[in-house]
Amino acid sequence: MWRLVPLKLGRLSRALKLAALGSLLVLMLLHSPSLLASWQRNELADRRFLQLNKCPACFGTSWCRRFLNGQVVFEAWGRLRLLDFLNVKNVYFAQYGEPREGGRRRVVLKRLGSQRELAQLDQSICKRATGRPRCDLLQAMPRTEFARLNGDVRLLTPEAVEGWSDLVHCPSQRLLDRLVRRYAETKDSGSFLLRNLKDSERMQLLLTLAFNPEPLVLQLQSAQK
Q1: 22 vs 78, which has greater pLDDT?
Q2: Among residues 2, 65, 99, 122, which one has the fewest Cβ atoms lying within 10 Å of its Cβ?
Q3: Long-range contacts of 109-115 (CB under 8 A, 24+ apart)
Q4: CB of 214 closer than 8 Å to CB of 112
Q5: Residue 202 to residue 60: CA distance in whole angstroms
Q6: Residues 161 and 186 in one domain
Q7: Same domain, 114 and 152
Q8: How many CA atoms lie within 13 A of 137 on its CB side?
Q9: What pLDDT does residue 7 have?
């Protein structure tokens, strides 16, 4: 009697696996035209997939030209959007290279949040600007705190961003000076005055600082090498 229990559990496990595989095959057959299209198309050159349509409610844009020129392409199964529901962390494997150089190297791409977290960010921006959960982000961003540092001085001070994220839980002016200087990619010692940045760039910097400052930390670390 006791020997039958693991046997039944093993059969149940195999049955569930087969059912999941069968469901996946059915979905693939139902979406075969779109699957074929997604396999042939480089979505890393698509502005909507890159979420450039949300700018300035977006993140760093210095690599946009490389993406749009087709210098970054998904690897194999990463081209199938049907599998995105399994990719909770929004991590993608791709190949990057200059077309004239011929060779490509493997790279890992990662969005700064999950789909749920990014959707919550959109809703938060809209609520701050309009009081509604949905809106035109392009028009909403200039009406949030991410656009308040305007005028002739444009200082990024600890009082303005303290507590926005772990990076600025207790910030110093020295940290903020270095952060903006690296973001602006300039050696000018006075670049903590945000005059070096366009309005859209300044909003992207502050949004990144508040939502996920990982790219800013990487920039700070690369400056030390």
Answers
A1: 78
A2: 2
A3: 109/44, 109/72, 112/59, 112/208, 112/211, 112/212, 112/214, 112/215, 113/211, 113/212, 114/88, 114/89, 114/90, 115/90
A4: yes
A5: 10
A6: yes
A7: no
A8: 21
A9: 47
Same domain, 135 and 201: no
Describe the strand order of the beta sheet including 91-96 as a list of residue ranges: 72-74, 91-96, 105-110
Entry pTM: 0.74
Do 171 and 113 reside in the same domain of the chain?
Answer: no
Supply the range of the domain harboring residue 133: 41-141
Q: Are residues 45 and 137 in the same domain?
A: yes
Is residue 125 a part of any domain in this protein?
yes
For residues 91 and 136, membership in a common domain is answered with yes
Q: Which amino acid is at 80?
A: L
- Check if the beta carbon of residue 154 is closer than 8 Å to that of residue 202: yes
Which residues on neighbouring strands pair with residue 105, listed in sequence order? 96
Per DSSP bridges, beta strands 91-96 and 72-74 are antiparallel
Model pLDDT, residue 2: 44
Q: Encoding tokens for residue 191?
A: 């670049």
